[in-house]
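Data card: per-record layout.
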Amino acid sequence: MPKGYVIARAVVTNATQWAPYAAASGEAMKKYGGKPIVRGGRNEVIEGEGRARNVVIEFESFDAARAYTQSPEYTAAKKLREGAGFIDMVVVEGA
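The structure for this 95-residue chain is written out next.
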């Protein structure tokens, strides 16, 4: 079965306010079996619009990745980041 991935690209405008979201979403990720592959770090924009913060989380399946993003734990975490930046997030099935 192909793996599932959550891919997020974020702009953080208030790091202090964003920090509780990062902690809570990390706990939810662990609960749903997520493994961070990329979490921030150095990056270089080659084409298009880049973002300063990029995250890739691997899950056992597309359904597991989607369950994380729809979970009560992640829903609660999202509320913590309101007004602290913005994020684009997709769930993708691996090859």
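Known properties of this structure: The chain has a mean pLDDT of 95. The helical segments are 15-31, 62-70, 72-80.

See the next section for split statistics.
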